Amino acid sequence: MTQKTKLVPVTREPALLPERDADKSPVLECIDLGITFGGLKAVDSFNITIGRTEIAGLIGPNGAGKTTIFNLLTKVYQPTHGTILLNGKDIQGLNTAQINRAGIARTFQNIRLWKSMTVFENVLVAKHMRAKQNVFSAIFRANAKEEARMQEETMELLKEQGLDIEELAAAAYEIGRPLPWQHLDMGFTEAYLISEWQKAQREEFTPMCFDLCRRCGVCGEAQV
């Protein structure tokens, strides 16, 4: 039986956080967030506070603005008004790549992978976001140690999911297509924004993905 999490009020009313996060600063906060397209208010006065180990759901009918909020958080769209705080820091002015490096990662409703690459290679792509290398080190193969480190971390990530490593390392991308986590560098992410991942996956993967959500929450990585 799943134990219920007690929610307690925090400083910024009317926010509630899990009791285990009450003494920690929120990982993500939106204050009066909104965006207007011409005369249309797509999102208006959106407020949310996410605890450091919290798993939260953003629920609403089609057209309510859920995906637009994700686009605001990742700076696909720039807010018309409002503030976004990541670990207490205002991320105003950051672009999408900088937001990702700062610690916000997301999935999309339609999972698009590189068909010419294996499952292992698709997961490895996320590691390059924080790689300490440049064009010259890549050309002259001066980054061999870092490449080896990223490959080792990728293999460990696949092992954590209970996947057959030898099979996946050489498998075609279709085997990994139902998994929504390919492009999340999970060791360095503060908040995961997971968008309707269940739409594109086979039913047998659902328990594994829910288990991963729970384990990430316990490890101190918030999810929306």
How would you describe the overall organization of this protein?
It is built from 7 helices and 9 strands. With 224 residues, it is an alpha/beta fold. It has a 4-stranded antiparallel β-sheet, with helices on one face. Strand 8 (191-193), helix 7 (206-218) and strand 9 (222-223) form a beta-alpha-beta unit. It is globular. Mean pLDDT is 76; it is low at 172-178.
Overall geometric form: globular
Structural class: alpha/beta
Helix amount: 25-40%
Low-pLDDT ranges: 172-178
Strand order of the largest sheet: 4-3-5-6
The helix count comes to: 7
Mean pLDDT equals 76
Largest sheet: 4 strands, antiparallel
Radius of gyration: 19 Å
What's the structural blueprint in terms of helices and strands?
Elements: E1 7-9, E2 16-18, E3 28-37, E4 40-50, H1 66-73, E5 81-86, E6 89-90, H2 96-102, E7 104-106, H3 119-124, H4 135-139, H5 144-160, H6 165-170, E8 191-193, H7 206-218, E9 222-223
Parallel strand pairs: 7-8, 8-9
Antiparallel strand pairs: 1-2, 3-4, 3-5, 5-6
